[in-house]
Specification:
2 copies of one chain form a homodimer. Chain A is an all-alpha fold. The first copy, chain A, is 76% helix and 0% strand. Chain A has 2 domains: 41 residues, Arc Repressor Mutant, subunit A (Orthogonal Bundle), CATH 1.10.10.60; 140 residues, Tetracycline Repressor, domain 2 (Orthogonal Bundle), CATH 1.10.357.10.
């Protein structure tokens, strides 16, 4: 039921916003009582924290698998990391939007936890890039921190526009981005 | 006074969100009466629309100057377009966040207007890229639509992390991004 409450609240927070969604709205969708809600969650705040932690922890877990895959080069890991983020759009688009938009409603201690996990995700991405430079896969004149922000910008922004059921598949999109990152566009 | 109301409401909408900010909150910051507010704005909705139109129209106006500057190549126009977006962070960061986060609270007809203007901005960016390909400045095997999304992702995402008063200046950041876009990172 905790999972059900979480899943039911995400589309509501996405559409109406955290502030405008009441616990009443959530229990109505599920056809349960407020008592049931409070059995699983102390407050709406705890629910928002849970949505955000679930979203970022899932990304971190998937990233860890990519990072630890010794059969791949670091350049391939950078590719797989991008593909993994873009693939989550299909299932996690609403969570992602709640994550980025509603983060400011988190209380101090919850916000700290999320910021720490975001930082970890960014640093793992940067680590892949640094290793690719160290191994001579990427040029050594690039700045790993700025390249990391550039790559995260391209992938995270796709939540706002990309339709995984449209003309361009997830793999095609990442192939195009990776080609841009590797070879650039200069004639 | 209309401009003052607009400027006072942006930090409130950014911090508390559109739904949780009352007209009372806004007039308190300014030390005026609700009557004054309603003399200039019919509703909070009209104010949100005004913030969003002002933000995107400013970008469109600046973009038009870049597009019409015949002394520049299209590659230079792509560069100037990126620099212009990144430079607005200094003054318009809060407006940008309100723009992206609170858009879903716009009523249908207001939302349509904003979506139309966003589309225009994206198409103008894509036009610069198509012209750069046509003139042989960019390779002809790239997809202009995907490159446009990639560039807008990198620049728009910087609203979430970039500090214009930090270690990397606005021009340095765009130089690094442009170098990445032109030459890629492959060793």
């Amino acid at each position: 039921m905790r999972e059900k409450i979480l899943r039911a609240s995400i589309p509501l927070f996405d559409k109406k916003g955290y502030s405008e969604t009441s616990i009443q709205d959530i229990v109505e969708v599920l056809g349960v009582t407020k008592g049931t809600f409070y059995y699983y969650y102390k407050s709406k705040q705890e629910l928002l924290k849970d949505i955000n932690v679930t979203y970022i922890q899932n990304l971190l877990d998937e990233q860890k698998k990519i990072l630890n895959d010794d059969t791949k080069t670091y350049r391939e890991k950078v590719y797989n990391n991008m593909l993994m983020v873009i693939r989550t759009i299909r299932n996690e688009r609403q969570s992602a939007r709640v994550f980025f938009r509603e983060m400011r409603h988190l209380e101090e201690h919850n916000l700290k936890l999320i910021i720490q996990k975001r930082y970890e995700f960014r640093m793992n991405t940067q680590h892949m890039i640094e290793k690719a430079i160290e191994n001579g896969e990427f040029r050594d004149r690039i700045r790993p921190d700025i390249l990391t922000f550039g790559i995260l910008g391209m992938t995270n922004w796709s939540y706002y526009w990309y339709n995984p059921d449209g003309e361009v598949s997830e793999k095609e999109l990442v192939d195009l981005y990776m080609e841009l990152i590797l070879n650039g566009v200069k004639n």
